[in-house]
Amino acid sequence: MIKDIDVLVIGSNVMDLISYVDRLPHKGETVEAPSFEMGFGGKGANQAVAASRLGAQVAMLTCVGNDNFGVETRANFVANHIDISGVLTGHQSNGVAPIFVESNGDNRILVVQGANTELTPEVLLDKIDLIKRAKVIVLQQEVPMPTNIKAIHLAKKYNIPIIYNPAPAHKLPLDVLPAVDYLIPNESELTAITKMPVSTVQETKAAARRLLSFGVANVIVTMGDRGALWITAGQEATLVDGQDVNAIDTTGAGDAFVGAFAHYFARGESLETAIIQANAYAALSVMTRGTQKSYPSVSHHMTKEVHA
Ligand code: RIB
């Protein structure tokens, strides 16, 4: 067990079943796909692995399945130097995600939550020691919402900052937002929460500002190859440029961003630096195939200009 926890990720783990396709089949049609790869995924686990590969001391609170995927997932956490004292084994099969990646790198994902549904609020109370020791807690939405709400309340009680990634988009109880320090949606999640358009940067800024009015302290919108946008009260929006890279597979790029941001934040970097570095790390992750497989292990610094 690690003594100091820089980043505690409370969330999902999933086995990714990735088919690389030329095109998706129509109803009733069978289409041959050029290749397939299996790899470790799940938004929570991806974020934990990204932070750990950048050098953070990471612990994970999650529930793996009672099958081979569960055994392999647990071993993968160990191989990635992640504290597994909060990794439980559930009574059902591991979460799985059939993923389809098209030739331009775009992806479509189905998630079967499996044992992730067993990460209940009671588990958090059993593992309260992990929560108390964390410098920052990272949440996403592939586990039961009551668990996230409990995590937010406990984090507030122990004065631990919360990074909340509202992915995949679900109905988010807006009354929890004042307790969230850093909300990191992508553009479609931002639209899902605010019901506002995000087709231009101006629209994205307006939608992010709406979230501030719900009480979130900071909103950081990930915008893929267009970079990231940070909004906080009383300040102009900060726009970090996208990186000009050749996208092969964008699966897990948002998680790479969140995990890297958590690492740089826990290390005490300024928010701007953490966002710039997270943006660069996410860009590196799209240049190769796979989810966690595409996360580099060392700090590659690809800094870019920041615009007010
Ligand atoms: O964000 C990418 C992840 O979403 C994949 O790893 C898949 O498991 C789904 O959870």
TrEMBL record:
Note accompanying the cofactor annotation: Requires a divalent cation, most likely magnesium in vivo, as an electrophilic catalyst to aid phosphoryl group transfer. It is the chelate of the metal and the nucleotide that is the actual substrate.
Matches recorded under Gene3D superfamilies: 3.40.1190.20
Ligand binding (K(+)): 249, 251, 285, 288, 290, 294
InterPro entries associated with the record: Carboh/pur_kinase_PfkB_CS, PfkB_dom, Ribo/fructo_kinase, Ribokinase, Ribokinase-like
Keywords recorded for this protein, A-Z: ATP-binding, Carbohydrate metabolism, Cytoplasm, Kinase, Magnesium, Metal-binding, Nucleotide-binding, Potassium, Transferase
Cofactor(s) listed in the protein's UniProt record: Mg(2+)
Its EC number(s): 2.7.1.15
Subcellular location: Cytoplasm
Residues bound to ATP: 186, 222-227, 254-255, 279
Record: residues binding substrate: 14-16, 42-46, 142, 255
Main location: cytoplasm
Pathway assignment: Carbohydrate metabolism; D-ribose degradation; D-ribose 5-phosphate from beta-D-ribopyranose: step 2/2
Domain Carbohydrate kinase PfkB: 6-296
Pfam family for this entry, one: PfkB
Reactions catalysed, as given in the entry: D-ribose + ATP = D-ribose 5-phosphate + ADP + H(+)
Keyword Oxidoreductase annotated: no
MF GO annotations: ribokinase activity
Description of how activity is regulated: Activated by a monovalent cation that binds near, but not in, the active site. The most likely occupant of the site in vivo is potassium. Ion binding induces a conformational change that may alter substrate affinity.
Active-site residue numbers: 255 (proton acceptor)
Family per record: Belongs to the carbohydrate kinase pfkB family.
Protein role: Catalyzes the phosphorylation of ribose at O-5 in a reaction requiring ATP and magnesium. The resulting D-ribose-5-phosphate can then be used either for sythesis of nucleotides, histidine, and tryptophan, or as a component of the pentose phosphate pathway.
Subunit structure: Homodimer.
The protein's name: Ribokinase
Organism: Leuconostoc pseudomesenteroides
